[in-house]
TrEMBL record:
One of its GO terms (cellular component) is plasma membrane. One of its GO terms (biological process) is CAAX-box protein maturation. This is CAAX prenyl protease 2/Lysostaphin resistance protein A-like domain-containing protein. It comes from Methylocystis echinoides. NCBIfam families: exo_archaeo (TIGR04178), pepcterm_CAAX (TIGR03008). InterPro entries: Exo/Archaeosortase_dom, Exosortase, Prenyl_protease-related, Rce1/LyrA-like_dom.
C-alpha cells in the first residue's frame, strides 16, 4: 500500500457522517470543560494574589474571582445533581439531549483564549503587581462570566439551568455562599499546600537515594518563604512546592486521560484509575531521583549544568518516560478487540492511526533528543545539532509519506509567513541582556565551531523543525481533531474547530503562548487554503528563515534561546 493510498484512507475515515449517542456527546463536552478548567488553573497560578493587598476597589473585586469561579462550579454541579434527583425518568434524560449552538461554542473559544492570553502575559510581566498586568486582571471578572456561561451551555441546555435555579434556590444559595467564603480563605495557600505537603516525603526519598553515593544530602536552613534549603558539599538550593513533582503528576494524568478517551479498546474505570495512580507514583519517585541527581551533578560535575539544563529537562523527560511507558504497557495488556460499534464507524482504524503515529516520529525524535541533550547543557545549548540530526533521521524513516507532499512557494504562504514574522517581533521583543549573554557564549568558541553551530541552527530552524512540527500539528493532530469533531458537526465547522484547537496546542508548547498560537493559526490557514500540508510546511519554514535573517543581521540572539 502506497502513501497516497494511506492518505485516502485518512480522508475517508475523517469524513464519516455518523451520529453517536447522547451519552457520548455529553461526555465529550464535559471533558472539554474539565480540560479548560485544568489549563486555566495551570496558567493562572497565583496571579490574583497581588490584587488582594491592593486598596483599590476594582482590584479587590478581581481578587474574588478565583473563589467565585470555584463556588460557581460547585454550585452548578449541585444544581444538576438535585435537578436530576427530583426529575422523573423521562425528563431526566430528554432534557439533556441537545447539541450546543454556535453562539455557545464561539463564546467558549473566545473567553478561553482571552483568559489564557491575559494570564500568560501577566505571568511573563511579573504578575498583577504592575500597572498593565493589574489593569488586565481587573477586566477578567467580565470575561469569567462569559467563560462560566459557555461552560453551562456545553453541559446542559439553558432551560435545565433555569429550572434548577427556580426549583432549588433555597439549597443552591447557601451552597454558593458557604463555598465562596471557604474558597476565598483557602485559595491563597492552595497551591502552596498541595506542593508543600509533598516536600517532606520528596526530601526524605532524595536523601535516601543520595546516601547510596556515600555522601549526605541535608537541609541546612530555610528561605524567607519558609521553604527548605538542601544540598551537599558546596552546592545548595531551595526546594519550593513546584519542585515537589505535583505539576508532573497532573500532566501525566491529563495525557493518560486523553489517551484513554482516544483508545478504541476501552478499559474499565477501575483499570484507568489504577494506571493513572501508578503513573503519578512513578512521577513522584522520579522527581525524588531528580533532586538527588541534581545535587550530585552540582557537587561533582558542574553547578551551571545542574541549575540550567538538568534541573528542568530531567523533570520533563521523566513525565514523558512515564506516560510513554504507561501507554505502551496498556496497549500491550489490552488484548480485546474494538467494539462492534467502533469497527462500524471507523473503517480501517489501525491503518489510519498508524499513518498518523508515523507522522509524529520526527517531532518525537526532536523533543526526546532535545531533552536528553538538555541534561548536559548549561546556559548555552551547544548540543543543538544533535536534536536536528535525530529529527532528520525521523524524517528519513518516514520518507515514503513525504514524497506526495507538494512544496510550493505560493503568494498566500509568503503573505502569511511575513505577517507571522512581523507579529512575532511585536509580541516577543528580544531582551538585550539575553542577547548579550548569548553572543558572549557563542563567540567565545573557536571560529569553526561557531560556523558549524550557526549552520545547524539555520538549517534546523528553516527546514527540519518546520517539517517535524507541521507533520505533527497540522498533519496528525489536525486530522485526529477533525475526525473527532466531524462526529458532532459539519465538515467546515470541524475543520475550523480543529484548526483552532491545534493552534492553541501549538501555542502551549512555545515560550510565548499568544505568539505561538497566532503562528499556529497562520500555518493552519496556509494548509486550509488549498488543503495541502506542504503549504503549512513552506509557510512555517519561511517564517523561521526570516527570523534567522533578522537575528543574524541585528544580533537579536534572544530569539534563539
Amino acid at each position: 500500500m502506497t502513501a497516497q493510498d494511506m492518505t485516502e484512507i485518512i480522508k475517508r475515515t475523517d469524513k464519516t457522517g455518523r451520529q453517536p449517542g447522547h451519552v457520548t456527546q455529553r461526555l465529550l463536552f464535559f471533558g472539554v470543560v474539565v480540560l479548560q478548567i485544568a489549563l486555566l488553573r495551570y496558567v493562572t497560578a497565583l496571579q490574583y494574589m497581588p490584587l488582594r493587598d491592593s486598596p483599590a476597589l476594582l482590584d479587590q473585586i478581581a481578587a474574588l474571582v478565583p473563589a467565585a469561579v470555584k463556588a460557581s462550579l460547585l454550585t452548578g454541579m449541585v444544581a444538576l445533581v438535585v435537578l436530576l434527583a427530583r426529575a422523573d425518568k423521562h425528563r431526566r434524560w430528554s432534557q439533556f439531549e441537545y447539541l450546543p449552538g454556535a453562539s455557545t461554542l464561539t463564546l467558549n473559544v473566545a473567553s478561553f483564549l482571552t483568559l489564557a492570553a491575559i494570564f500568560l502575559w501577566t505571568r511573563q510581566a511579573g504578575g498583577g503587581d504592575t500597572y498593565w498586568p493589574a489593569l488586565l486582571m481587573r477586566a477578567t471578572p467580565a470575561i469569567w462570566v462569559g467563560m462560566l456561561a459557555s461552560w453551562a451551555g456545553l453541559v446542559a441546555p439553558s432551560r435545565a439551568w433555569r429550572e434548577a435555579v427556580a426549583r432549588n434556590y433555597l439549597i443552591l444559595a447557601p451552597v454558593f455562599l458557604i463555598s465562596f467564603i471557604s474558597f476565598h480563605s483557602l485559595d491563597a495557600e492552595l497551591a502552596g499546600r498541595i506542593g508543600g505537603a509533598l516536600i517532606g516525603p520528596t526530601l526524605f526519598l532524595s536523601s535516601r537515594i543520595y546516601s547510596l553515593t556515600g555522601e549526605t544530602l541535608s537541609v541546612v536552613g530555610a528561605s524567607p518563604e519558609g521553604y527548605p534549603i538542601f544540598g551537599s558539599g558546596d552546592f545548595f538550593g531551595q526546594i519550593n512546592p513546584a519542585c515537589s513533582g505535583y505539576e508532573g503528576m497532573v500532566l501525566s494524568a491529563v495525557f493518560l486521560g486523553l489517551f484513554f478517551y482516544l483508545e478504541p479498546r476501552k478499559m474499565t474505570a477501575l483499570q484507568m484509575a489504577f494506571v493513572i495512580l501508578l503513573s503519578c507514583v512513578a512521577v513522584f519517585l522520579l522527581n525524588a531521583l531528580r533532586l538527588a541527581l541534581l545535587v550530585y551533578v552540582g557537587v561533582h560535575l558542574s553547578p551551571e549544568i545542574a541549575q540550567e539544563g538538568f534541573h528542568t529537562n530531567f523533570g520533563l523527560l521523566g513525565v514523558v518516560v512515564v506516560v510513554v511507558a504507561a501507554v505502551i504497557s496498556t496497549r500491550f495488556v489490552l488484548t480485546s478487540e474494538p467494539t462492534a460499534e467502533h469497527v462500524k464507524n471507523e473503517p480501517l482504524p489501525d491503518v489510519a492511526i498508524d499513518v498518523r503515529v508515523r507522522m509524529l516520529l520526527p517531532l518525537i525524535y526532536l523533543i526526546g533528543a532535545s531533552l536528553l541533550c538538555g541534561l548536559f547543557s548549561g546556559k548555552f545549548f551547544w548540543l543543538y545539532p544533535l536534536p536536528i540530526v535525530a529529527a532528520t533521521a525521523g524524517l528519513y524513516q518516514i520518507r515514503d509519506h513525504l514524497r506526495p507532499l507538494r512544496l510550493e512557494l505560493t503568494p498566500t504562504s509568503v503573505l502569511l509567513a511575513s505577517a507571522t514574522f512581523l507579529a512575532w517581533l511585536q509580541l516577543v521583543p528580544a531582551v538585550p541582556q539575553d542577547s548579550e549573554t548569548f553572543q558572549a557564549a557563542l563567540f567565545s568558541a573557536p571560529f569553526p565551531l561557531i560556523v558549524l553551530w550557526l549552520s545547524f541552527r539555520v538549517f534546523g530552524a528553516a527546514l527540519i523543525v518546520p517539517f517535524a512540527e507541521e507533520l505533527a500539528f497540522r498533519g496528525a493532530f489536525t486530522e485526529l481533531a477533525q475526525a473527532k469533531l466531524g462526529v458532532y458537526c459539519t465538515e467546515s465547522v470541524a475543520q475550523a474547530g480543529a484548526m483552532l484547537i491545534v493552534a492553541v496546542a501549538f501555542g502551549l508548547v512555545h515560550n510565548d503562548f499568544v505568539a505561538g498560537a497566532l503562528a499556529g493559526l497562520a500555518f493552519g490557514v496556509a494548509r486550509w487554503r488549498r488543503n495541502e500540508l506542504g503549504d503549512a510546511i513552506v509557510c512555517h519554514g519561511l517564517t523561521n528563515l526570516l527570523l534567522c535573517f533578522y537575528v543574524l543581521l541585528t544580533g537579536a540572539w534572544a530569539y534563539w534561546l
